Each structure stands twice: as structure tokens, then as C-alpha cells.
Amino acid sequence: xxxxxxxxxxxxxxxxxxxxxxxxxxxxxxxxxxxxxxxxxxxxxxxxxxxxxxxxxxxxxxxxxxxxxxxxxxxxxxxxxxxxxxxxxxxxxxxxxxxxxxxxxxxxxxxxxxxxxxxxxxxxxxxxxxxxxxxxxxxxxxxxxxxxxxxxxxxxxxxxxxxxxxxxxxxxxxxxxxxxxxxxxxxxxxxxxxxxxxxxxxxxxxxxxxxxxxxxxxxxxxxxxxxxxxxxxxxxxxxxxxxxxxxxxxxxxxxxxxxxxxxxxxxxxxxxxxxxxxxxxxxx
Amino acid sequence: xxxxxxxxxxxxxxxxxxxxxxxxxxxxxxxxxxxxxxxxxxxxxxxxxxxxxxxxxxxxxxxxxxxxxxxxxxxxxxxxxxxxxxxxxxxxxxxxxxxxxxxxxxxxxxxxxxxxxxxxxxxxxxxxxxxxxxxxxxxxxxxxxxxxxxxxxxxxxxxxxxxxxxxxxxxxxxxxxxxxxxxxxxxxxxxxxxxxxxxxxxxxxxxxxxxxxxxxxxxxxxxxxxxxxxxxxxxxxxxxxxxxxxxxxxxxxxxxxxxxxxxxxxxxxxxxxxxxxxxxxxxxxxxxxxxxxxxxxxxxxxxxxxxxxxxxxxxxxxxxxx
Lengths: 284, 322
Known about the structure:
The complex is a heterodimer of chains A (284) and B (322).
Chain A: H1 3-24, H2 27-46, H3 59-89, H4 92-98, H5 102-132, H6 141-168, H7 175-189, H8 201-209, H9 211-223, H10 239-267, H11 270-283
Helix pairs in contact in A: 1-5, 2-3, 2-5, 3-5, 3-6, 3-7, 3-9, 4-5, 6-9, 6-10, 9-10
Chain B: H1 2-11, E1 21-32, E2 35-46, E3 50-54, H2 61-69, E4 76-81, H3 91-95, E5 97-100, H4 112-121, H5 137-144, H6 159-171, E6 177-181, H7 189-204, E7 208-213, H8 216-222, E8 225-230, E9 233-238, H9 240-246, E10 251-257, E11 260-266, H10 269-280, E12 284-290, H11 294-307, H12 309-321
Parallel strand pairs in B: 3-7, 3-8, 5-6, 6-7
Antiparallel strand pairs in B: 1-2, 1-4, 8-9, 10-11, 10-12
Helix pairs in contact in B: 5-6, 9-11
């Protein structure tokens, strides 16, 4: 790696840290990232005392790993897509293009930023669960390692999808509208808050094709006792399969995302940003 | 019409270039869908020269600059910026360029100093003897007049301050060629004057500057050479005086006689004044002569272009008849 590239990677790390600091001091960002988590935590509190059918595990304890999985895919898919669409429109991306090796810095910065935000959310969820949920245990170092690789691999599997969406959707204000329905569908199918094993078999196959199912499964493996395997497909945590499926999504995603991102970045120019500005201002 | 034809021919950098050329463009064409936006633009800038692209909206100024910046692929023509083709040039080339874009709200949450320091980092590996990169932060903030704003968040800056920041970002890497796309939009007169001083200072540092504007006054103040672009062509080029001299526009003579103000248009102001003074002598006071200005030249050229060549031929014909 030559010096300019290395410099750009270092600058990207600094960018990620700076943006993380901006997130922590922005009401809008805090609400956006942490608001939904707070809602789920409150909902989980209401479910206290009720156990998952046929087990002695409170429903809230099963929800929490699912929520962590959801946090990962929200970061990878929704946040990446909306940030990319927004920063194309406001000229941030063009700025990166105008600086030598600026795109490297930008992409490293984004990766660091998302990773920091998601890690913070997951750690926060774990802390809340330890404080508030009966019988919730942190597990051992092996479980922590599982959480770590599930977060990283989960982001690698979903961020390319977010990047593709953010590159193709021109208007940042449409990103959520376009993605929300497929996102909700995937969420419903993937068994984040209830077990997939109760679904008809064809739907179970659909669920297992989705990255979210495997991310949530990985999280459950870390935080739920093995007695819960009774209600999982194949009665196993299938971590090897989870790693395989998420890697496959990551590879496929990157193969598509790289040319799509290249094409999008190539087309960024001052007049495009200016056109975006006019459109945004017209909307008021 | 003859004027226009002649200009496009002489503008071609025939054998121009060599070590001294920072920007060389010949026969640049740009086509979107079925319409030509640029019809063979020729442009040439020497090192340290300030070249202003002047033209009405839609003339192709921004498109031309974006092609030179490497942000847009051209349809045809030869383009060399610092000896390289912008379409294929590498990051080392990029480091020698400064770009001031028409931005609006990127990096709004960043502090001014924080953003400049971040962007400055990328230039450090490209430092050269005699051209240390990046420019030191304090000097940079001082130069653009943002010394008091280092800790301000970008989205709290006024429009003029924001534009100064854009300029600061453009010159943080001590560029050899600087592109400025309508840099003074939204500036008050004082900020405009500061900016003009800044441009002169940069030109003294041997920076080649290519600036677009539709402000004639600005073009006149800054440019070593002005290129008038209309309908995707360079219709004339030269210094402000040269351009004004090319237009056979009448001079305007104003004077006061017997408490009354008179105005007269004449192709030969000197002869007219001689006659006037011989005739009226002492009675005449407050003489003002306004020679054909860059504005007249610009209006005439752009108008001639916009009304089309058929119209030009007609104008030439009536002139002959007269």
C-alpha cells in the first residue's frame, strides 16, 4: 500500500470518529438511531412475565437478540442507503471526488462510522437487558466473539445492499418510502420476534434465504440458553451455516455494489448537485 | 460574422503548449442525447494566467469546467490539464488541482477548522519542493478571512462565509490549476473585493486560474484573458480592452450647455468634441465620454450569436448597402 492510500485510510478513520462524535451530539441522529431501540425496549418491558410457549424463557429475552439483529440490518441497509442518497444530493460525495484519494477516505469513514454506531447500539441493548431482564445472561467469551462476528459479517452482508439502493434512488426523501415495505416484509418473515419454526415450510425457506434470519439467529445463540433450541429449525444454532450465508450475501452484494457505486460516483458533478439542490428547494 | 469566424480560428492552440501550458483544449464537443451543448470549444491557459469564461446561462461554461475537472466525460476533442487527460488522470494529478464547486450544505455538522484539517490530510503525500502541501491551516483561514470561524459549525455560516470556505477547500492543496465556478455568487461588494484580492494573490503564486462568471465587472477586474462563450462556442477572446475595441459600438458623449444636459452617440468622439468645442467653446461644461465597454462588446457578441447566423448575414448586408 503506497503512502497516499495509507494516508487516505487514516484520514478515513479520523472521518469516521468525527462523524460518530457528530452523531452523539445531534438530536436528530440520536433520535433516528436510538429512538426505535427505545420503543422496542419499552414494548419488551410490557411483555415481562410472559414466557415463550413451551419454555421457561421470558418473551422479552428472546426479543432482545432479535432486536440486536434488527439494529444491524437497519444500520447496513437503511442508514447506508439514506446517508448515501443524502450525501450525493448535498455534495459531500463530490467533495470526496475533488480531493486526491478522497473516495477511499469517504468510504473508510462511512464504514467506521456505521460500525461505531451499531456497536454502540448493541452494547447499549446488552446493558439494558442485563439491568432489566430477569435471567438474561451475558454468556462467555465465545458468545461475545459470536456477537462481534455477527455484527461485522451482518454489516458486510447488508451494507452493499444499502449502497446499491442509495446509488439508485436519486431523491434522499424517497429512500425510506421505497425501502420500508421490503424491509418490513423481510422483518416479518425472518423471525426476529417469534420463531420461524411455526411457519409453513415454504416460508421457512424464504426466511432462511434472508440475511436478517441468520443475523438474528447468531444473536440468539449468544444470549439464549440451549434449551431454546427446541423451537429453532433443525434444533441447532447452525453458526457455520450462518457464517456461510452471510458471507455469500456479502460477496454477492459487493460484486453488484462495486460497479453500481463506481457508476454513481462517476456521474456525480457540480451540475448534478445543483439540480438536486433546486429540486430540494422547490419542495420547500 | 467575420469577427466570429476569425476568433474561432485564432483560438485554436495551433502548436501552442509546451512547458508553459496549464490547460489546452481543442475541438471540445459535448453531446447530451441528441443535442450538442459544446460545439468545438478551444481554450488555452498559460501557467499563472487568469482566464475568465464569460457567458450567459446555458452557454456551456459549467459543462466545460466539469470536463476539465475530470467530473464529466466529453464526447469529442482534445483536453489536456497539466499535461494529462482529465478523463483518465490519476490521483497525483488530482492533487495538483483545486476545485471550487457550487456547493450548498455538505458537511454541515463539521466545524470549519475540523473539515479543512480533514481535507488537508489527503494532500500531504503529494507535497513538492517549492509547493508544500497542504497549506498551513492558520495561513489558509487568514487568507480567506475565516480566522474567527475555525470553531463554527459549517451550517451556522452565512452564505458569504460558506463560499469563503469553499474557496479555502479549493486552495488547501496549493493547487497549480484552480477552477472556480461562479465563486462570488451571493457575495456583498466588500466580500467580492476581498475575493478579487485573493485571486490576484493566488495568480502571483503561479496558480493558473480558470473562473466562470456572468458578472462582467468581475471578468474585467480579474482576467488576463476573457473567453466569451455563447451557445457552446467561444465567440471571442482577448483582454477586456481588446474585446471592447472589436465592437464597432458608438461612444457616448455627455455635456452641459446653458444649464441643459446633452447626450450624443458618435463613432468618433474626438472629432465630435473638436467640433462641439470649436462651435460653443466656453459654454460647454461637464464633458463625459463613455467609450464602448466590455459590456457593449459582450452584449453585441452574445446577441449576435443568439439571433443566429442568418441574422448576422442580414446585418452585414445592410451595412454594405449603407
